[in-house]
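Hey,
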Amino acid sequence: MTNSVVRSIGMALFTVGCAAAIPTLATAQTSTKPASLAGTWNMGLIGDHVIPVALVLEQDGAALKGTYIFMGREFAFAGAVDGNTFTLKGTSPLLGRPGQPSQHTGPAPTGAAASNPAQAAAAFDVKKATVVDTTITGSLNDDGAMAGNVDVKIEEDKTGRIKWTAERLRERKVTNEPAVSSANVDMTGAWTMAVVEAQIQMALDMKQVGSKVTGTASSDHLGTMKLDGTLANGTLTFIATGSNAGQDVRLEFSGKLKTDNTFAGDLTSPMGSMTWTLARAKK
């Protein structure tokens, strides 16, 4: 066999080897870039009603840490991001549907609470809740929102699941819309408030004297709370205080009067920031 033939065979084998190696090398170098999930998320647990919680995420590459804030109590989680999906592990309160002991903190509710999800939820005391191993899985959607499941370990071989959705908390853009005068607005009377992220309706009964606004706010989820605030220069601010399952609750509201005589604004709560709208109750 001549040297030229040997060289030709060698070049052919080298070429075939390179062709076979290139796809493998390309595959090895291809990786899924982790989505950016860092920030504060308004999270809603979807059961008989939506339970608002806050999820604060810190990210370092594919490594993910989270603080799950439920009714003012914080729970630490850790996990990882793989593309648009993530997994977090930690502990959280045991939650579930009323009437199902295997998915509820303690015995099944009795009396009115057994048939009224709102009363059962109001009876929930996060300070006394059973804390169990929890896995949060989810994915980032094309619209920038997230959705997934919370799986809690009920017993050694039994897991409970609740679905959730979340939107990233964003700073509101300052608009140049002219302020709407509230000089001729009297808050006295019945109003209906919608807390958007929590999907909660509240009935407000208010009284205004000068710029001072007082009254009550009632909902199935939070019971009756006391209101104390002001209306001045088109801005309504008030604090709602009350008690839920032996725990003090404080909600801070701030909103602007709109040209249609409704209000819209922001709410600061132990479950994170949310938005609200307010309109005269329909007779």
